[in-house]
Amino acid sequence: MDITVTVNGEPHRRTIEPRLLLVHLLRDDLGLTGTHWGCDTSNCGTCVVWLDDVPVKSCTVLAAMADGKRVRTVEDLGHGGALDPVQQGFVACHGIQCGFCTPGMLMTARWLLNHDPDPSEAVIREAISGQLCRCTGYENIVRSVRWAAEHPDGAPA
């Protein structure tokens, strides 16, 4: 089937198998490997992207469902060589360990801060509850999101 999807602001027209998952379209066809592929069961959350500005787990979304829609991936967070404040927070607060869960965490955190610029620790924990991190124990991830909330324009130059 033929689909047209706008990924990170760029339109792409592709002929796909109806069973193709969005994560595979992004990684294998478009070369956007920042979106990680972990479990295929929607449990780990490493594959979170935005579909029309809503976070989704791309390992359980068919690429056909993205036809005519906008997808935003982790590659689109930073602009002009500058990291997004969420990315800066993960660096500043050691929210990155092995890095496998990081793309999904970053996309979820950015969405959260876009909708709640000053979330409590409890709200942050709820927002990331659909994602697994086996390295950090979540403490540094929560600190990273709080850092981004406290520095909405990023780190001072």
TrEMBL record:
Pfam families: Fer2, Fer2_2. Keywords: 2Fe-2S, Iron, Iron-sulfur, Metal-binding, Oxidoreductase. PROSITE patterns: 2FE2S_FER_2. The keyword Iron applies. Residues 1-77 form the 2Fe-2S ferredoxin-type domain. The keyword Oxidoreductase applies. Coiled coil: none annotated. PANTHER family: OXIDOREDUCTASE WITH IRON-SULFUR SUBUNIT (PTHR44379:SF5). This is (2Fe-2S)-binding protein. It comes from Amycolatopsis rhabdoformis.
